[in-house]
């Protein structure tokens, strides 16, 4: 919010009608420029000098109800104007303050939203709903522990509050406390099953504990169609698990497009100026990266070779961080990037204006629809060319997203499955140049234990009913083999119970299924691959980093491939690693590949010794070639920019 003084003509104006009209126009301009305090002060002056037949109470009630109606109609500018008018007439209108905070949060003006909810809570500190609103804003600002505290305070006042229970569940889910997440999410549903957005959050918790029966009771596509488009993007990653058939994927594509169109509509209501013309002779291409993961995270490792090997005479690299965490990786980026900006608290317009002020030519969104996402802000067109990469394995739905950065194996086999154009690199879209040098146990697990151990380190939300059926079929053909699940969330009682029940239905007894939380044993996750003979991948959302981790530790991976990006992440890595023979196109092929690996013990012994070296010699672990391939793609975009009508 601006602290700029009001223009001279707005101060001490007379009661003349024309002056009031001028000041009203100035107030509207302040709203469009996100100068809320200035707009409210202007409307306050108008209120103080206006003589009407109606009482102040009647005017305030009218403004409050009109603001609600405008909000329900998704008329953002009108909603903002009416709230500023309301608070100009009644600065301490409690419901008006809270609703304004909710509106500002929805429009991603997080700092402004927090200032108004703080004022509301000064007036009504023991309001459960107000504390919940504060929690949601703190979550958006990346202040997650403060958000958890706000939700807990809300629930202390109102233990059954559906929104606070649901939002606390989301926080616990992000911290792998998935039993607690499910409990609070279930309380939210029980308290008010009519709130459809709570059901969508509940899907996330159901997926994390593999509650397949409960998932299959709901028509999630129908639910999504009933919800406002702006509410649904947080569920997109988990909803990919429902995208198996092409029909499902086309439905999902339309749903994502509906969200993208909504963001475009919001941007059109508060537009930024057209991007200024750039020089037709671009000597140094300015590339921006928008991400929540400039920290100890796989995304940081994937892009790091660009910061090491791109020639800075040709490229400037800028980082726009949507989540702040100071660690050694963050320091690396600070020391090597042209600039690092923290943008979590910025409105979409301010974020895009910052990117524009830096003169960015190409902006990469590395987060997509994952935690810390600001994908929606790109509807305001932050850069002449905008590209989605890494964070979300699918289409963004935004008309302003020009490309998806893909490779020849990752690109969908059917181009109509995505909205964007595919920007294809000659190499890979990821580079694993910094994998930990964890020793590989030379003796394979089968020789140590006398039986085969299959396993996975994939996130539990990727495990579907059909995935377990596929794995169970392999286990039926290998009657002495066992299956090992490794991950922190497998400490969950509910998750273990549901997985064991599912295997039991398929004839696999629970003594053949094992779970391990490596964090309890303070054991490096890569070392856990020393317990696995070969890994079976998930589908339709396939493994990415976990696939490369397995190969690095000498463990083969059996994959199932589909036509869309989320169904090809694992198979693309296997192609680059030189093992297309482990990629299946059908369930029967998946079983056959697994059985061939099981039968060929000598091959697995050899792979345990040589697979890491093979991976090191592949494009996946060649940072200089990765940077060179990226450079060649950027040169194509440089030519496009120079020929573009924008320039």
Describe what this molecule looks like in 3D.
The chain is 50% helix and 9% strand. The protein has 647 residues and is α/β, with parallel strands linked by helices. The strands form 2 sheets. The chain has a 7-stranded parallel beta sheet with strand order 3-2-1-4-5-6-7, covered by helices on one side. A 6-stranded parallel beta sheet has the order 10-9-8-11-12-13, with helices on both faces. The longest helix has 24 residues, at 246-269. The protein is globular, with a radius of gyration of 27 Å.
Structure summarized in a few sentences:
By secondary structure, the chain is an alpha/beta fold. 50% of the residues lie in helices and 9% in strands.
Key phrases:
alpha/beta; 647 residues; seven-stranded parallel beta sheet
**Overall mean pLDDT:** 93
The overall strand count is 13
Biggest pleated-sheet summary: 7 strands, parallel
Q: Give me the Rg, rounded.
A: 27 Å
Task: List the total number of helices.
Answer: 26
Please specify the SSE layout and strand pairing:
Elements: H1 17-32, H2 36-49, H3 56-72, H4 76-89, H5 94-106, H6 110-123, H7 128-140, H8 144-157, H9 162-174, H10 178-191, H11 196-208, H12 212-216, H13 220-226, H14 236-239, H15 246-269, E1 285-291, H16 298-309, E2 315-321, H17 328-336, E3 339-342, H18 348-357, E4 362-365, E5 385-388, E6 403-407, E7 421-425, H19 445-449, E8 453-456, H20 465-477, E9 482-486, H21 493-505, E10 513-516, E11 534-536, H22 545-552, E12 557-560, H23 569-576, E13 583-584, H24 587-599, H25 601-616, H26 623-643
Parallel strand pairs: 1-2, 1-4, 2-3, 4-5, 5-6, 6-7, 8-9, 8-11, 9-10, 11-12, 12-13
Helix pairs in contact: 1-2, 1-4, 2-4, 3-4, 4-5, 5-6, 5-7, 6-7, 7-8, 7-9, 8-9, 9-10, 9-11, 10-11, 16-26, 20-24
């Amino acid at each position: 919010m601006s602290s700029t003084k009001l223009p001279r003509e707005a101060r001490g104006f007379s009661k003349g009608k024309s002056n009031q009209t001028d000041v009203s126009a100035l107030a509207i301009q302040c709203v469009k420029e996100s100068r809320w305090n200035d707009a409210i002060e202007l409307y306050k002056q108008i209120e103080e000098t206006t003589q009407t037949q109606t009482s102040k109470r009647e005017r305030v009630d009218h403004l409050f109800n009109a603001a609600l109606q405008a909000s329900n109609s998704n008329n953002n500018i009108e909603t903002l104007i009416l709230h500023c008018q309301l608070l100009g007439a009644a600065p301490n209108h409690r419901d008006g303050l809270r609703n304004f905070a909710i509106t500002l949060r929805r429009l991603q003006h997080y700092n402004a939203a927090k200032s108004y909810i703080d004022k509301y809570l000064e007036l009504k500190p023991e309001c459960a709903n107000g504390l919940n609103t504060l929690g949601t804003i703190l979550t958006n600002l990346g202040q997650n522990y403060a958000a958890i505290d706000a939700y807990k305070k809300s629930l202390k006042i109102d233990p059954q509050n559906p929104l606070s229970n649901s939002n606390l569940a989301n926080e616990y889910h992000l911290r792998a406390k998935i039993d607690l997440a499910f409990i609070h999410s279930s309380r939210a549903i029980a308290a008010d099953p009519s709130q459809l957005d709570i059901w969508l959050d509940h899907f996330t918790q159901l997926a994390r504990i593999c509650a397949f029966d409960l998932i299959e009771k709901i028509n999630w596509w129908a639910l999504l169609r009933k919800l406002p488009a702006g509410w649904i993007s947080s569920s997109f990653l988990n909803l990919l698990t429902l995208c198996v058939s092409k029909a499902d994927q086309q439905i999902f594509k339309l749903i994502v497009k509906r969200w993208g169109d909504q963001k475009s509509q919001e941007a059109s209501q508060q537009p930024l100026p057209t991007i200024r013309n750039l020089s037709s002779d671009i000597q140094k291409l300015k590339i921006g990266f928008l991400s929540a993961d400039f920290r100890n995270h796989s995304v940081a490792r994937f892009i790091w070779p660009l910061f090491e090997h791109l020639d800075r005479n040709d490229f400037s690299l800028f980082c726009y961080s949507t989540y702040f965490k100071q660690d050694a990786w963050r320091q690396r980026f600070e020391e090597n990037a042209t600039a690092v900006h923290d943008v979590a608290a910025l409105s979409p317009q301010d974020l895009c204006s910052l990117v524009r002020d830096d003169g960015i030519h190409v902006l990469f969104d590395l987060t997509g629809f994952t935690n810390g996402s600001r994908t929606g802000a790109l509807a305001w067109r932050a850069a002449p060319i905008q590209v989605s990469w890494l964070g979300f394995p699918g289409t963004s739905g935004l008309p302003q997203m020009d490309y998806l950065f893909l490779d020849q194996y990752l690109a969908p086999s059917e181009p109509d499955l995505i909205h964007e154009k595919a920007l294809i690199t000659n190499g890979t879209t990821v580079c694993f140049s910094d994998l930990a040098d964890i020793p590989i146990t030379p003796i394979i697990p089968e020789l140590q234990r006398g039986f085969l151990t299959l396993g996975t380190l994939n996130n539990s939300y990727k495990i579907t009913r059909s995935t377990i059926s596929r794995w169970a079929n392999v286990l039926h053909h290998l009657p002495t083999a066992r299956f090992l699940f490794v991950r922190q969330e497998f400490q969950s009682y509910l998750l273990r119970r549901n997985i064991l029940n599912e295997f039991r239905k398929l004839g696999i007894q629970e003594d053949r299924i094992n779970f391990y939380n490596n964090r309890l044993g303070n054991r490096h996750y890569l070392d856990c691959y020393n317990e696995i003979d070969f890994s079976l991948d998930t589908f339709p959302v396939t493994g990415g980093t976990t696939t490369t981790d397995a190969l690095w530790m000498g463990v083969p991976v059996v994959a199932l491939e589909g036509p869309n990006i989320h169904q090809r992440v694992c198979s693309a890595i296997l192609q680059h690693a030189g093992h297309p023979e482990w990629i299946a196109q059908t369930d029967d092929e998946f079983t056959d590949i697994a059985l061939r690996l099981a039968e060929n013990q000598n091959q697995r012994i050899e792979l345990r010794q040589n697979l890491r070296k093979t991976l090191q010699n592949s494009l996946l672990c060649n940072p200089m070639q990765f940077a060179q391939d990226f450079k060649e793609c950027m040169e194509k975009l440089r030519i496009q920019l120079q020929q573009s009508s924008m320039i």
